[in-house]
Amino acid sequence: MIFTRFDAALNWVRKNSLWPMPMGLACCAIELMATAASRFDIARFGAEVMRFSPRQCDVMIVAGTVTYKMALAVKRIYEQMPEPKWVIAMGACASTGGMYRSYAVLQGIDQLLPVDVYISGCPPRPEALLAGLMKLQEKISTERSFRDQKPELAEKLEDALA
Amino acid sequence: MSSDELFESLGKSFGEKIQHQSEFRDETTYTISVNNLREIAKFCRDELSFDYLLDITSIDNFGEEPRFEIVYHLYSMSQGVHLRLKLKVSEDVGAVDTVSDIWPTANWHEREIYDMMGIKFNGHPDLRRILMWDGYPFFPLRKDFPLEGLPSEMPDVAFTKVTPMEGGPFVTVPSTATSKDREPRARPPEL
Question: Is the ipTM above a cut-off of 0.90?
Answer without folding.
Answer: no
